[in-house]
Amino acid sequence: MVPVIALVGRPNVGKSTLFNRLTRSRDALVADFPGLTRDRHYGDGRIGDKPYLVIDTGGFEPIRTEGIVKEMTGQAQLAITESDVVLFLVDGRAGLTPQDQRIAQNLRESGKKTYLVVNKAEGLTETAKAEFYELALGEPYTISAAHGEGVKALMDLVLEPF
Ligand code: GDP
Ligand code: MG
């Protein structure tokens, strides 16, 4: 089984940068995976002998319906539903935000296997990740999507069960 990995997080945390690093061809292979919706941003990749599919969930702009701020678009929710694993990205330079908190709550409620990924961590000390324990999503993993640091180690962990 090829795992489907959804990249989730508020705007500007580096989802698309990570997507580009993890994928070699975009929107490929989707036809080979019955059940995947075609109107999202898919890519495929492989580390060692382990192939995977990645979804860049894009828009997490809050939308206001009947006074309720919904943090996730329907698209993002669907991406989570059809994924096996979620990589929840936060910004290690900006620090923890209320929007991160609300997305984290959604993810905890979803019950989906979630890895908490602290991006933009190049040059930051380990203490930069300390505040993210508060999200109650377990150990934060520091990476730099832009520079590639920590990405292989993270993916080895994510792909291990598959
Ligand atoms: P998205 O909105 O979550 O898809 O975020 P993008 O991938 O578009 O990245 C938003 C901004 O953060 C861009 O200017 C990226 O160059 C920058 N960025 C992404 N990853 C890193 C990183 O690892 N380190 C730093 N310093 N900047 C990054
Ligand atoms: Mg993006």
UniProtKB/TrEMBL annotation:
Binding site for GTP 1: 9-16, 56-60, 119-122
Region of the whole protein represented: 1 to 162 of 443
Protein name, as recorded: GTPase Der
Lineage: Bacteria, Pseudomonadati, Pseudomonadota, Betaproteobacteria, Burkholderiales
UniProt function note: GTPase that plays an essential role in the late steps of ribosome biogenesis.
Protein family per UniProt: Belongs to the TRAFAC class TrmE-Era-EngA-EngB-Septin-like GTPase superfamily. EngA (Der) GTPase family.
Organism: Parasutterella excrementihominis YIT 11859
Subunit structure: Associates with the 50S ribosomal subunit.
Domain EngA-type G: 3-162
Domain of life: Bacteria
